[in-house]
Structures
1.
Amino acid sequence: MAILTETTEGPLVLSVEQVEEIGRELDALRARITADLGDRDREYIYSVIKAQRGFEIAGRGLLYLGFLPPFWLAGVAALSVSKILDNMEIGHNVMHGQWDWMREPGLNSRAFEWDNVCPGDQWKHSHNYMHHTYTNIHDMDRDIGYGVLRIDEGQKWNPYYLGNPVYATLLMLLFEWGVMLHDLEVDNIIQGKRKWSEVKALLKGQIRKSGRQVLKDYVVFPALTGPLFLSTLAANFTANVVRNIWAYSIIFCGHFPTGVQTFTKDETAEETQGEWYVRQMLGSANITGGKLFHVMSGNLSHQIEHHLFPDLPANRYPEIAPEVKALCEKHGLPYNTGRFSKQIASVWAKLFKLALPPFLVKNGPQAGVIVMRRGQPSEVGV
């Protein structure tokens, strides 16, 4: 497997032995963390759940005083934090199976449902399986553009993409709905590559789950506040939008800033475990920040570590990140990380740039890596 274009100094070449060594070291790191899971991890996830529930109760309570603007704003803020924690540090990670080892029914990946319109089982297929197995492989990983955006130069341009920034803004504001529709592959249905009859079961699940969410947020809880129905409805809507913007921003910073690399099916065929690890490191990016920032991001601020070990408890990612970074430095691999403002700015710059026809855009050099296979290099990447 080989990756990307040459730098001014030429591509970095990883030997078969180096790739195998990377695989062994990461396997050993995973085994060590798995063997060490225990009480401090239990205490961590229980504390996050307690905090999430506390913010939700506080938010619901404050909205009974929603006729006073300070209380309405405080209620929205508390509900927003609650929804972010539920989706990012609890829901996303629980459904990855990160807490299955505890044998706690409420944290079982097969049964958990989050506060989101997307059914958990559909999300686990589109995200856990398709995205994490085929990370950044064109025509396999539908997270490359989500069937809506041009986010990589390997996607063929057409005039539709002139609206790239508009589509991205709508996806950001309505992110939970975009996630819900993701598994339908609506773009393929429109192009005739998939029939509506093939997604009937998916649609039924989506209608059932989204119906419950709409009923809860926009009927039941507003009704419980009586004459403040509209005030509470607006608060719930606002909290959902805040959560959507935050989740979108964290996820896009981890997958699409400058320097993140993509691949083709031919280039990644018959991939070894070591090559899979290398692809995950080259196809992901981290965000620097403090402990609270990492918790609020679901520790997806450590997207590189998450892609390497998606079923390890996310609270361990900050602990292993220095080792992963050192491993990258040892072999000359890029370790893409930066502050939130830098990463999100590069994502939006890319969205605007890739909206334009290729002949109007000048592409700069990218870091190059060639991973040797037995006998000769096989050049991979775009």
Note: Residues 2-343 form one domain.
2.
Amino acid sequence: MDTSIYFANGTLRAVAGSAGKRSLTVEDAATLKLPEGALINGVITGEEALATAIHTLREEHPRMPMRNVRLAFDSSMIYFKQAELPRLSVKRTLEMVRGEFSEMDEELLYDYAVLSPRTENGGMYVLLNAVKRELIMSYIAFFQSQGITLSAISTALSSQIKLVRALPGLGRETFIMLVLDGNMLGASLYVEGRFRFANRARLFAERGSEALEAEIERTVSTLIQFNQSEKSGATISHLYLCGLIREEEGIHGDVCRAFGLKRGLLTGEGLIHSRSAEFDLTDYIYATGNLLRM
């Protein structure tokens, strides 16, 4: 069993579970509030507050193993692009990924995720990632100070893509996925189950306010227009809206009706078996996806 931790805006979310080839068993899940300013844009600015949260997690959830923890995080200092690359070894592919970001005058670490293993041209379609080295090293140093070794570090987007790929039924859908994460809104478009576009922006509206619905509608409208301009041949059918608080629960249905979309519900059926009463997939998308190894 592994533990996956996601540092969200204002919260720490953790999921403990065991992942197989076609299934995931969730044993425990936890959400802990973080003081304002403990994390800013994914940067640790309140180490003592995070250390307190890790201590609380250990005390209140002793079933969560704290060895070889998997970390997911989000930040504007994560750069990504999509590209078609030849099918090469991991080492050669990483060299090509580095070349794709060669114009950036920063010290970066690189990774990639295969979106389509084989294209019409015999290559592969890949999501390329680059992250500021200092950001990754700060996470490693923090967890080491807590006696925790990280076995994997992933971006929130990569974790989400793995989850979507693993969930039965989503492979044929063209849909929008929105994730409300504190004062941030993550927006992604999937065309026939394959990741196509993502954006991350700060919310102008207050959480729980009437203005939030209008802001979400503008985001959905933009993604619908983008899909039309791309001439993908697929029409967006579903909207998945995650991370809602109680005062916002009516927004999902309202936005779907405004655009004639079906209300997508992430239950994890066919993939996830949960033994935790705390676990709701819509609140733990990134931490859950990061448990998967596919």
Note: Residues 210-230 form the longest helix (21 residues).
3.
Amino acid sequence: MAFLCSSLPSSSCSIAIFSDSNTDGFRSSPPSSSCRFRLRPISASNICAPAIDRSTIVISETASEDELWAAACLRVRTFNEFDPSSYNIQDHRRYLAEREFEALKERISGKREGFTKVSCVNATLPLSQLSTSSEDLCSACKFSDGIEDRVVVGSLDLNQCRWLPDEIAGTKPEGFTVDFGRAYLSNVCVAKELHRNGVGYKLIEKSKGVARDWGITDLYVHVTVDNEAAKSLYMKSGFERESAEPAWQARYLNRPQRLLLWLSLPTS
């Protein structure tokens, strides 16, 4: 399964970015009028999932900057298509990771206007659980938790806010509680090597628990209309359809048309 999409580029960027996602992505800061990014969902992966001990998967909020950097690297690896023959590709990948890393820190620290609270939730595995066939993933997304080397294999953002830039806005709750009761999932991604291991579902379940701790009552996520794998995952997690993006808006933003999915969270 190909999962969701990462952070929005800064206004100085001029490259095209592609989403490799099972839950179509939202990029976390709006592009300038002179810089448009092209997103597209990618069909389910045919890569065979490695044999891992699923009990070693840890789903938690980011605990260190090293882990946050590993999450940023996973997003660059997941959401971008690179031509291996391109000049200086490693420097370009690092540039994108640095930009995502700084944007993540800004959102989590509460410095991004419009976001009340943001948490980066990651799925990690011990480095020893991944085979040599996952060498690129291990080298790009490795960090140390102080006890052992681990690898970020899945990630998402939980955003407490009224809306996400350039996305359909949710309508629940209404009135004065909207600033405190509504949150959006974004940047949901799972390394292609770990598809079909339940990582996406576990990430969403963890984010629901964090949202409840924040007092969130209504949780939203966006998905492209033709991404059946993503819709299946979210429906399994309890989401239901609320609304569809107008076709003109999708054309204007040069991306596939999206649905807004909604989940009501129990308050007790």
Note: The domain at 54-264 is CATH 3.40.630.30 (Aminopeptidase).
4.
Amino acid sequence: MPSTRWTPFVTVAAVVEHDGRYLLVEEQTPDGLRLNNPAGHLECGESPLEAVVRETLEETARAFTPEALLGLYLSRFTPRPGDDRTYLRIAYAGRVGEPLPGRALDSGIVRTLWLTADEIRAQAARLRSPLALQCIEDHLAGRRLPLDGVYSHPSLWNGADPVLR
């Protein structure tokens, strides 16, 4: 009897607030233009912290500095028959710098926006994932966990210290 192992898709997300507004990206998806936190998939050989810094830079052209872990989030996504995915999102709160001159946004990203929580709630149907708003709500509620709440073993980098790679 063949065994199938359930494997979630692991993603990271950045929650960035400045002056009461949250940084979002507007991106092309198979379901049209959607809003999301700067986010993306964890890649082989990188820690979640490295991934969220990379993804935020790619999607916003801004350097991201993680300051706290917001939490781990699970969501099931079944847009079409036969397409059943579960996502595990690792979300971080932090800050970004100014856009880097000459840095293009990642393919599929149309633009970045700064929206209030109420503006985001009003556009909940346009969110790529229900987790985007949940992360913002948790941020608004003051949830902050230590960054070392997610441990990355050196084996991710073949035993090399990631700082020295």
Note: Residues 30 and 81 are 15 Å apart (CA to CA).
